[in-house]
Every structure is written in C-alpha cells, then in structure tokens.
Amino acid sequence: MSPSEIEDLSMPPTPPAEVMELISRSRSLGSEPGITNYGGGNTSCKVEMDDPVTGKRRRLLYVKGSGGDLGTLSVEGLAVLDLDRVLELNRLYVDEDHEGDLMELLEFCRFGPPGPAPSLDTAFHALIPAAHIDHTHPTSVTALATSAEGPELTRRCFGGQVGWVDWRRPGFTLARDLAELLRDRPELRGVVLGGHGLVSWGDSSTECEETTRWIISTAAEFISGLVGTASVGRVEVGGESTRARILELGPRLRGLCSADGHMVAEFRDDPQLMAFMASDRCADLVEAGTSCPDHLLRTRARPLLLPPVGERSEVPTRDELEAAAARYRDRYRSYYESLADPSSPEMRGADPRVVLVPEVGMWSFGPTAREASITADYFQQAVEIMTSADRLGGYEPISDLERFRIEYWDLEVAKLARRPPPPPMQGRVALVVGAASGIGRSVASMLVDAGAEVIVADLDQGRATEVAGELGSDGRRPLPLGVDLSDECSVREMVEAVVMARGGLDVVVNSAGVARADPLEETSTADWDLLSSVFSRGSFLVSREAARVMIDQGMAGHMVHVVSKNAVVAGPGNVAYSSAKASQLHLVRLLATELAPHGIRVNAVNPDAVVRGSGLFENEWGRARAAAHGVSLEDLPSFYAGRTLLGQEVLPEHVARAVRVLVDGTLPRTTGAFLPVDGGMPASFPR
Ligand SMILES: [Zn+2]
Fold first, then answer.
1. What digits encode the pLDDT tens for the residues 380-413?
2. Domain check: are 348 and 219 in the same one?
3. Average pLDDT of every residue of the chain
4. Better pLDDT: 231 or 369
5. How many domains does the chain fold into?
6. 539 and 473, same structural domain?
7. Residues 643 and 656 in one domain
8. Distant-in-sequence, close-in-space partners of 297: CB < 8 Å, separation ≥ 6
C-alpha cells in the first residue's frame, strides 16, 4: 500500500452528495418554527457506498443525532449506521417493554468513526424503505394528531394520501407499525403520528421536502377551512399599569420557579397568548396539558396558571403566589410518585417552566436566556396546537402515564446526561456597571465565561453595545444598557430593564469610574459633587434598586463595588476622589450588615494603579498622574509596579478574577470584606 493510500484511510470517507442534500433540506425545514420546534424532529437518508476496508458495497443510514437542531445541522451532527445491521436488529424485536435493549444494540450498528448518538427515532428511519425521510412537529399536522377526531380528519384532509398511526413512544414498535401500514398502503406519502407529529418521505431529497411542505400546508388550509384562523380577539396589553405589574411579579415568580436551581426568565404578552389566557377554554386546555414529547421535556405537561387579575386590578399577593407554586410542585411530585417504580430515574425537579398570569402575560424559564426563549416558543406552539385541535372537535393529548414514560424514559434521561455539566454561574443574572472598558469589561467577560447572563451597562451606551457584541457567542449575547449613575431615574430604569429582560437579578458589580485629582485649593465644588455623585450616591442608588429586586426574589445575591486603594490610604492632592472612594467603601460595610439577613453578600475589591487597559488612564488623568510622578505615560505602569511588594503590574483581569471569586460561589462565607488587588501595598493592608 502506498503512503498516500494510507493517508486516505485515516480520513473518514467523504459524505456522498445525498448527505449534503439532506443537510440543506434539514436546515431549510428547521429554520421555520411552524414546521418543527427548536431541537425537535429528525431527518435521514439512505445511501450506498464502498466500504473503505473491504471494498464491498454497503447500505448506510445517515440520521440526525440525538439532541441536535435541524436548523443548524451539519455532517458532524449525523449518526452513520449500517442499514442492513439495523434491519437485522429488528429481527430481535420482542415487545414494547424491551425497546431499551434494541436501542442499546443500535450502538453495534454504527459505521465508520464515532459520531453523535443516533436519534431515538432511528428505528422508523431504517424500517421505512424510502431513501429520504423527514420527521417534524408542524403546528398544523400536530393539531390533527392531537384532535379527538384525528384519524377521520386526516382521511378527509388528505384523501388517502396520508395515513395515521395511534400514539406510540419512539422506537421499534412504532417503526414496525409504520412499516406494516406501508406494506398495506404503499401509495402513502406520509403518516400522522397520533399525539405527536408527522413522518413523510420521498425517493429524492427534493421530493421529500416538497411532500413534507405539501402535507403541512394542506393541513393548515384544511384546518382554517373548518374552524378559521385563530382569532386573537380584542385584548388590551401594555400601558403603565401593566408594566408595573410585570416589574412587581417578575422577581417573585423567578424566585418561586427557581427552587430547584437558578433560572432566567423571559416575559411575553403577544396578542395570541393574551387571547388564549382570556378565553373560557384556557383553564380546561391547560389542565389537559401539552402532548408532543419535546414539549414535555421543555415546558412540562402543564404551566402554572394563576387566577386573573380581574376587577380588583391587583396582582396576586406574595402569599397567593407561594401557595400556587407549592400546589404546583406538590402536584408534580404526586404525578412522579404515582407513576415511578424503583427502577425509574430520580425526579428532575418540580418547578413550573411556564407561568401564565391572565391580563398580564407569560413568564417562561430556562437555565439560560436562550433556553427561556425556546421554552416560550414551545409553549406558544402548544397554545396554537391545543386551540386548533379543540376547535376541530376536541383536544386529546397523550395520557399522564405516556407522558411519564417519555419524561422518565431512561433513553431520554441518557440524552440529558450526555450534556456537558453546567458552568458555575448558569442561571445567574449579572449586571456589570461601567462594563464598556477597563476593569468592568474584564469582569463582564469573565462572568460570561462563567455562564452568567451578563448585562453590560455603561454611561457610553454605544460602547456598551459594541462590548456586548464582542463578548457574545453561540447565540448568547450580553444585554447592553446605558446608565448615568448620577441620575436616580436612570439607575432605576436600568434595573427595571434588567427585570423586564431577564426576570430578576442575582449579581451586581459596580465598576463605574471617573477620575479627577487636584490639590485642595484647586478642587471645584463641581468636581467634588461629580465624584461623590458617581461613587458615593451612585453606589447607594445601584445597591438600593438591586437590593429591592433581590429581596423580592428571595434568592440571596451578590454585590461587589470596585473601590480603590485610595479608600484606605490617605495621600495629598486627591481629596475629592479619595473621600468619595472612602464613602463608597464604608457603604459596602453598611450594606453587608443590613442585607445579610436576605443572604445578600456585599464586598469590595480595592485595586491600585491599573493603567494598561483602563479607560481612566487613557485621558487627561493618566498624563496628570505621569507628570505628578515625573515619568512618561508609557513608563507609568512600570513606575507603579515598582512601588509594590510583588513588583508586578496590575491588569484589569487580575481585578476581574478577584470579583469573580466573590460572586461565583467560591467564597460563600465572605461579606463586608475588601480584597486588595494592588501588587502588595503595606499602606493599604486592612486594619
Ligand atoms: Zn418527534
């Protein structure tokens, strides 16, 4: 064998053209929420190719991996199986209770280098003979699938071109039902999966996608012909009183829905949702619960539905909310306990993922802002499905027993277990003030890396927006906000904007800075007022507004103020700055004592001489400090470093690391402290 042939062998075989068509079809279908929800559905193709080891012809099944998303599918997201081995595996079928054994043996049907775990729906992708197959959860078809008259409506809608199978969990039993139906009715172009969604196919990728789209649009036209498009009615939303209710309820609900772990919230009041909550069918449909397997895992079967605000035009009281959440959790626990057996996986929390407050709106929850948003999308699709099916003669979702079998199916649990462990600050909402440059930017970056939902706030809103863009990745992007700490309204609006966008607040880091240094006799009252309004009064305002939210949430919290060595070391020519910093440091101690009963830790970091990467030193202040010390601006970092015990320069990331340990749970018993980050300055040792 020649060296070049050996090199070829070490490479995985190039995917055939059909696989690239499968990818582009999947992305096209997955990008439309009406066709399939995020992370839901799966697609496949069957191809023949030469085995690079034996040279023999092999039939392969490329199928979407478990847990991926169709809209962003890539070749790496596909599992590759030897089709004939999967068909052999089908001959080992015993009954529905032994599905798990076959799914384990599926691992022995892989072809080529290891890839993702094959989708739980792989069995029907193998047993249906067509070359290209789509499985989707379209809103229109799922409405038929969950209708009490589903089989009859499907027949009327498609005139025999699309079949029906009753609800079954994914697996070989469902696949065998489908294969048998196709043996009897080879003319079928697709099948409605009762209680679930759609499977459709074609000999080519183009034919498959056309058929999938034809079935979805035909179902949509059929439904609107029978019951009309869902009318949203006349529902008043918005206005100042509604905003006040959202701000009042958001943190309380977030606290109550985070009993199992910190969650980020998203609030929505789309007309469709408001009309659903106002309708007299809302309570019954909520009680019936969602149906599609993916919905269960995202939204749970039922949301927490609170009573309407009604004529008293007051939001539910804290006691009422606590009682409602406790009832929800108790009910979920009894659902689990009544259906679990000793071999069942442990209960995965009992918090509601969706809360409906009629006349106000919907809160959805997730461990990240993106997940909270996906949960909201799922529930809105569920509302459309439930409402349509209800009007079609009755909504009939799968039973609680089937729900339990999906939610606590060991294969679904294994899918969750494959996820990487969550980062330490997942679910934490962290507001960083002064985050557009220097230490604040470095803190924001470090908290993003720690998994927090970060808000980049700064006086310079344009720069805050740029920094938020720079720090974002993988669909996560910090929220940029403008704020002027010397303006009480501006500070309040900033904290309100955080609550509106994320449901609450867990961490505040105040790194806002402004610098002035003059001898006493040249210090103007304007400068004195500016420095104390930013450092002293501004810190008070940020702390007060944040504390109100944190106390309301009942989820403890952290505050860190970036103070300065100057707060404890007296030196000449800096009276306004250092006095304001000393006031800020004492505020930290006062807040630590007052907020401790709420579990809120308040600490300070005291940096010194952070020159490089600092916003402050880039302007007149830097030149003034350099001139005062008789060195050039370029030599200022090494001049400051030379004054320290360690003799090393202090950079923004050194300060950011100190902030991080104070807020990421590393130092849970520390409050009222100040942590010097100054390279070692005996004059600023805590006394
Ligand atoms: Zn499905």
1. 999 999 999 999 989 999 999 999 988 888 766 7
2. no
3. 91
4. 369
5. 4
6. yes
7. no
8. 406, 407, 412
The Cα-based distances of 289 to 363, 399, 635 in angstroms read 17, 9, 68
64 part of a folded domain: yes
* Residue 244 CA to ligand 1 centre (angstroms): 40
- Catalytic residue positions? 577
Distance of CA 420 to the CA centre of its chain: 14
Tens-place pLDDT, residues 240-280: 778 899 999 999 999 999 999 999 999 999 999 999 999 99
CB-facing half-sphere around the CA of 152: CA atoms within 13 A: 6
193: domain CATH number?
3.40.225.10
- The pLDDT value given to residue 235: 52
Question: Does 212 lie in the same domain as 356?
Answer: no
More confident residue, 103 or 153: 153
CA of 391 to the centre of ligand 1 (A): 23
588-598 average pLDDT score: 98
CA 294 to ligand 1 centroid distance, Å: 7
User: Does residue 373 share a domain with residue 292?
Assistant: yes
Q: Is the pTM of this model over 0.85?
A: yes
270 and 389 both lie in a single domain: yes
Q: How far is the CA of 92 from the centre of ligand 1 (A)?
A: 24
Domain containing 65: what range? 3-227
Ligand 1 geometric centre to CA of 400 (Å): 17
User: Quick check: 318 pLDDT over 50?
Assistant: yes
Nearest to 654 by CA among 671, 670, 669, 637: 637
Give just the sign of the alpha carbon dihedral 370, 374, 375, 379: positive
CA of 433 to the centre of ligand 1 (A): 44
